[in-house]
Amino acid sequence: MRNYGFGGRDLGKVFEGVQIGVGYRIDDAVTVAAQFKLKWFTVGYSYDINTSAVKDFSRGSHEVYLRVHFYKIPEVPKPVSGD
Length: 83
Hints:
Layout: E1 9-15, E2 18-25, E3 29-37, E4 41-50, E5 61-68
Antiparallel strand pairs: 1-2, 2-3, 3-4, 4-5
């Protein structure tokens, strides 16, 4: 029987174009990730640290990705100061 739980990764913005994050999959793994976004593509890296029984057979997994944006990603407007 497979154990389903919440999982995912929340990448927080470090500075313009760079995000890092940590995620957790219940009874499975902890992930760390970083990505760099440019105008039309994103390059990223993540690493899974196994916490389940599979850790006896695996030391984790690496993932490198290139995401191409075929449309313009809208920029989030910067807050306007009410001085």
